[in-house]
Amino acid sequence: MKAWLLNNFGLDNLVLGETPTPQPKAGELLVKVGAVSLNFRDKAIVDGIYEPHMVPKPLIPVSDAAGTVVAVGEGVSRFSVGDRVNSHLYSRWIDGAPGPDEPDYCFGSPLPGGLAEYMIIHEDSAVRAPDNMSDEEASTLPIAALTAWYSLVDYGQIKAGDSVLVQGTGGVSIFAIQLATALGANVIVTSSNDANLEAAMKLGAVAGVNYRAHPNWEEQVLKLTDGKGVDLLLDVAGGNGLNQSIAATKAAGKIAQIGFLTGQTTALGLMPLIFRQTTIRGIAVVPRSSFDRMNAFLNENPIKPVIDKVYPFAEARQAYEHLARGAFGKVVIKIV
């Protein structure tokens, strides 16, 4: 089969080649991949800054895929040939709390990912794709949508009328705006781009703050919430900006720490954290059971993934470059 292979770190070392088509073993599905979508994790793996000691070479990258089951191994009962499925990043995390070794079984590193014509997914890990989405749309769900869903519903437990702050307009953030709005929350979004803020408000956000124009953006958030701060804040930036996130969150509020776009370390001021009694939870995607619940919700609610651009399979490198420049929503690669 044709596959993109990462032979060493750096985008120049991601090359289109051929590798044997895998065969499903007991309990496994052979999936003809229809589309994959890129996350910051995928770029960080190629760049060699995401757990580089765990990356095998060559590696078929990209964790998030949607496609059709074309063959099954012995004993498979959850899916049949012809079913459309999603991959799930943590392939062995099915329900409950994560085990200590979940990262050892992630698609796109160290397990082979979906940037190929076919991939293997165990039936226990696969999730039925929403009926109302194309492969391109469904491929955006496994990390971006699911991280937003878990942050809002399982962790944040938001309810109608709650306030949520979403940082940026990338994949996770756009899904968070759409999902939180559908759940009845009031969403504030931050961005350095006024056009993106306007687009985010068309998706349901009630207010936007340009953090370039307002470097102390947390002060603007407090003004928008009558001085209280938001109930839940989704932090995708990381770095020292976490201190501003604490200031923008209400007393006894919650922060979902999702990303590290501005840095993997932070100089955290403890006294505001202590006095505001803020809860910070690291979110590294979620169990498959939450994915099942989210896709059921998506089947009942008219939320369409926001895709910035779909690239053909041969232009995978250009897709990575687009992600590096920044995207409004998701960058997708169509395999077939």
TrEMBL record:
<dbReference type="InterPro" id="IPR013149">
    <property type="entry name" value="ADH-like_C"/>
</dbReference>
<dbReference type="GO" id="GO:0016491">
    <property type="term" value="F:oxidoreductase activity"/>
</dbReference>
<dbReference type="InterPro" id="IPR052711">
    <property type="entry name" value="Zinc_ADH-like"/>
</dbReference>
<dbReference type="InterPro" id="IPR011032">
    <property type="entry name" value="GroES-like_sf"/>
</dbReference>
<dbReference type="InterPro" id="IPR013154">
    <property type="entry name" value="ADH-like_N"/>
</dbReference>
<feature type="domain" description="Enoyl reductase (ER)">
    <location>
        <begin position="10"/>
        <end position="333"/>
    </location>
</feature>
<dbReference type="Pfam" id="PF08240">
    <property type="entry name" value="ADH_N"/>
</dbReference>
<protein>
    <submittedName>
        <fullName>Zinc-binding dehydrogenase</fullName>
    </submittedName>
</protein>
<dbReference type="Pfam" id="PF00107">
    <property type="entry name" value="ADH_zinc_N"/>
</dbReference>
<dbReference type="InterPro" id="IPR036291">
    <property type="entry name" value="NAD(P)-bd_dom_sf"/>
</dbReference>
<dbReference type="InterPro" id="IPR020843">
    <property type="entry name" value="ER"/>
</dbReference>
